[in-house]
């Protein structure tokens, strides 16, 4: 039986291609959604861009017929823009149609009264799904680009090994691995002897072998790993053959500090890359970034303050840490930019850090990765348990999506950091609060 999916605006703003993701079913776009897209199209960020793309997709479908009557979609199914079914008859009192959400819900509510098949509201708005449920209607999240965060690839696993295997690993500096479970490229392994738990080894998987770490004890811009997960992170960050690195961890685990330290080491000390580019998602409250006074650096600083704090910590031995930072920026060695201004660029031979990547959509992650030019390396850091984006969660954000999609690629590596190193107070807060 064919289903009818009523799409909320936030689904199209999250992924404009969602119009074509519902197979051979009926897709209904309430007229209120068109109005909301029009309201968002002038924004100079990802939301505005997706609004414009969604509008262009709908405009292209007009060539197939009248949108109000319904047009065939390339992959099957029918899409129509719904002008009717806004009646408030039998609609619970108190739900004002002045709100776009309630108008979208009214369309789904009235269609469900007439349709023989199921009518499902698709929205990334948790409260709208709750309203639909209260009204006895079916509602769901848009799940095509979601992953199961509870089963997220960790990049590290513990494997039981015999005393002979561990001795062979230390003696030969490698151990052939063909047994189950199969390992991912650059996955890290903690070998433990269950008969003697004190006998253990840490290794990484490469080309069918478990091999020792190469960079785990290095000092980069004064920073040294404090635990095994940080050693694993350094291994990924310092290996130039690994072009895409993802680091996931709660606050205080050191993911951003390690990435900044290695970036400075690679760019300033080793000259392996021509520039250190740092970016973060910007979700302004109120006016967009461009409306703030001052230079680009002055506009960015409120959103980049956490990065500035970490950089000043790394420059703490200098007499004036801020002067060192400003000098690197003036020389063009260090650059900070928003994701909005990276679109359309090609970024060759640069060390790129995208911090707070849990606040990026999967579509934006793709946009950023495809900007990476020849000889560049890109690092994504973030905590999927601290998401500020109103329509993303642990399962639908771009960081977790990226981790799962690229875990089998030779040019990519991932590790989840679990132990807090910022302070005893920060570690307590991360665990208990």
TrEMBL record:
Keywords: ATP-binding, Nucleotide-binding. InterPro entries: P-loop_NTPase (IPR027417), PhoH (IPR003714), PhoH2-like (IPR051451), PIN-like_dom_sf (IPR029060), PIN_dom (IPR002716). It comes from the Bacteria. GO terms for cellular component: cytosol. GO terms for molecular function: ATP binding. Residues 3-130 form the PIN domain. In the N-terminal section; belongs to the PINc/VapC protein family. Belongs to the PhoH family. This is PhoH-like ATPase. It comes from Desulfatibacillum alkenivorans DSM 16219.
């Amino acid at each position: 039986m064919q289903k009818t999916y009523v799409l909320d605006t936030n689904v199209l703003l999250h992924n404009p291609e969602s119009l074509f993701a519902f197979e051979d079913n009926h897709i209904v776009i309430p007229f209120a959604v068109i109005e909301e897209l029009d309201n968002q199209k002038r924004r100079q960020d990802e939301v505005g861009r997706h609004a414009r793309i969604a509008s262009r997709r709908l405009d292209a479908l007009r060539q197939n017929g009248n949108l109000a009557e319904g047009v065939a979609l390339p992959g099957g199914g029918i899409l129509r823009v719904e002008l009717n079914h806004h009646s408030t008859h039998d609609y619970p009192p108190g739900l004002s149609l002045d709100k776009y959400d309630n108008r979208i819900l009214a369309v789904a509510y009235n269609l469900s009264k007439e349709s023989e098949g199921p009518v499902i509201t698709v929205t990334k708005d948790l409260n709208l799904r709750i309203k639909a449920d209260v009204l006895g209607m079916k509602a769901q999240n848009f799940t095509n680009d979601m992953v199961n965060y509870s089963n997220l690839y960790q990049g590290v696993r513990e494997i039981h090994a015999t005393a002979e295997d561990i001795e062979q690993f230390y003696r030969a500096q490698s151990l052939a691995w063909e047994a189950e479970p199969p390992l991912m490229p650059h996955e890290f392994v903690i070998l433990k002897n269950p008969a003697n738990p004190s006998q253990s080894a840490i290794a990484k998987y490469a080309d069918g072998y478990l091999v020792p770490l190469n960079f785990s004890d290095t000092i980069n811009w004064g920073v040294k790993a404090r635990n095994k997960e940080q050693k694993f992170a350094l291994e990924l960050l310092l290996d130039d053959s690994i072009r895409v690195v993802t680091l996931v961890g709660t606050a205080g685990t050191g993911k951003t500090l390690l990435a900044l330290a290695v970036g400075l080491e690679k760019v300033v000390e080793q000259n392996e890359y021509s520039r250190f580019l740092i970016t973060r998602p910007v979700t302004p409250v109120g006016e967009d970034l461009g409306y703030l006074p001052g230079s680009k650096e002055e506009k960015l600083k409120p959103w980049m303050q956490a990065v500035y704090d970490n950089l000043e910590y790394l420059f703490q031995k200098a007499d004036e840490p801020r002067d060192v930072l400003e000098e690197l920026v003036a020389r063009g060695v260090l650059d900070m930019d928003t994701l909005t201004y990276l679109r359309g660029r090609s970024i060759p031979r640069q060390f790129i850090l995208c911090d707070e990547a849990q606040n990026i959509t999967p579509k934006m992650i793709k946009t950023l990765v495809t900007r990476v030019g020849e000889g560049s390396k890109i690092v994504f850091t973030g905590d999927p348990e601290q998401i500020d984006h109103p329509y993303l969660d642990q399962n639908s954000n771009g960081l977790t999506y990226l981790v799962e999609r690229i875990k089998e690629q030779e040019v990519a590596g991932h590790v989840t950091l679990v132990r807090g190193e910022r302070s005893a107070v920060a570690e307590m807060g991360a665990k208990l609060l």
